[in-house]
From TrEMBL:
This is Iron-sulfur cluster assembly scaffold protein. Gene3D superfamilies: 3.90.1010.10.
Length: 139
């Protein structure tokens, strides 16, 4: 393993990736969307339920992504409950700007874990998968 890979795949990232087990796929959730990274082929399917005001209440995930993509999806899932489509879209835009070097790391719980992945453009598509899948489900 190269030293770059060790810096990217930290125990914290691997633990966050494993934490996705707390968000199992649930066919009963009414809103579903998916996203695919053009850069690495990673995919994620997401199912959501909303409250009466359009805020996310439950999340189910089916990830097929690298540990960085899974850790980012875990950050999404742990921070998305209570947020609406506008919050998700704004966060997605901020993450895109941050990955492009045009802004600070967005203020989203757990996103700091994947901060080192910004230096790996091949992982950028995997980082935004959960936000993209959520926006697909919410559209």
């Amino acid at each position: 393993m190269s030293s770059g890979a060790r810096a990217l795949y930290t125990p914290e990232i691997l633990a966050a990736a494993a934490g996705l087990a707390a968000f199992p796929w649930d066919e009963a959730l009414p809103l579903q969307g998916d996203a695919r990274s053009r850069s690495c082929g990673s995919t994620i399917a997401m199912a959501l339920s909303l409250d009466g005001e359009g805020r996310i209440m439950r999340i189910g995930l089916r990830p097929h992504a690298c540990a960085v993509g899974q850790a980012a999806a875990h950050a999404f899932a742990t921070g998305a409950v209570g947020r609406n489509r506008e919050h998700i879209a704004a966060a997605r835009a901020q993450i895109g700007a941050w990955l492009a070097g045009d802004g600070p790391l967005p203020d989203w719980p757990g996103l700091h874990l994947i901060e080192a992945a910004r230096d790996y453009p091949g992982r950028h598509g995997a980082i935004v998968l959960a936000w993209d899948a959520a926006l697909a489900a919410l559209s």
